[in-house]
Amino acid sequence: MESQSILERLGILADAAKYDASCASSGTSSRNSLGSKGIGSTEGMGICHAYAPDGRCISLLKILLTNHCVFDCHYCINRKSSNVRRARFTPQEVADLTLSFYRRNYIEGLFLSSGIVKSSNRTMEQLIEAARILREEHDFRGYIHLKTIPEADPELVHQAGLYADRVSINVELPTDSGLTRLAPDKNARQIEDAMGRTKDDIAEASDAKRKFRHAPRFAPAGQSTQMIVGADAATDADIVGKASRLYGSFGLRRVYYSAFSPIPDASAVLPLKRPPLIREHRLYQSDWLMRFYGYKPAEVMEAAGADGMLPLDIDPKLAWALKFRDRFPLDVNRAAREDLLRVPGLGVGAVDRILAARRHRTLRLDDVARLTQSIAKVRPFLCTVDWRPTTLTDRADLRALLAPKQEQLELFAA
Gene3D superfamilies under this entry (predicted)? Predict the structure, then answer.
């Protein structure tokens, strides 16, 4: 391999890491360097998020240790059969880069993943060593997210959690059959076993912390995972069901969705076109319905069509409400919180403001308008003291009335 400068390798390995969406740094415990000789912080202004236009977090130094890989996953640009430029960092170089970027105020933490080089255990040891150098030799108090390798020895994965704020293991694809077909070197049961052990380690560390003040931290920001959307034939209903099971079985903080992106020299088993990015967005919306709005997975799946796909032109909450119009309209002055959360156009904050306001007065439609971002979407599903939608809720063209208007953008518009 030709001699490469640090900047050339950084360009290669930062670009190779862009396909991993699970780099958010929320949820970690407070830690700072005030009153110590350390560096970094995870509280206050410590982790300040910046987001790319497609919604991905770019506030962390997000790189691969190496894009060499002995696996041959069809969807991965870094697979062993891919003809891409290869590069590699040492753990010391990763630590030096992180500290250098941090001191320049470019980043507030590190997201570190890697291709599999030599063996899973060897690669996992290198990832841990980079985190160890930062934590032990430089007393780095900033955020660290390590992507762990399910094929590695469980003790190594455990060590990663002792240094990292968050750990993650990608399930990669929504179905076992899709994983077998597109990632023959990976095993679904092995991935879930590793996630289960990490869940147990997090629970044990949390219990120990309550009993013993100086008990070691273990991944205080929890674990997350990521699924690729559109690389196989899995439907949105399959993906929602898988995500729900992962949340329930492994206590994940987040399931991330990443729309499949065609890669150079792609395998013939992959689709030729990427799925629409709005599909990824609809899956995130369905995820929020389950996590914050009280929807059961089966209810989210009911918003999908007969083909198991969520509609792209409207959000899943509106799709569900249109299918179950008999549940509406709701009396905004009497309805329970869990019912109001199902009204299209009402978010958690808006519902809480409505509940607080109606303690003091009977709400009118104008009052609701002041408490929400848009009253147009809400009107067909609510009653107030001065408003009833009458036949509006049952109109055959209600979907067309509420769907966002499509507009053609102009390249050279002023």
Answer: Aldolase class I
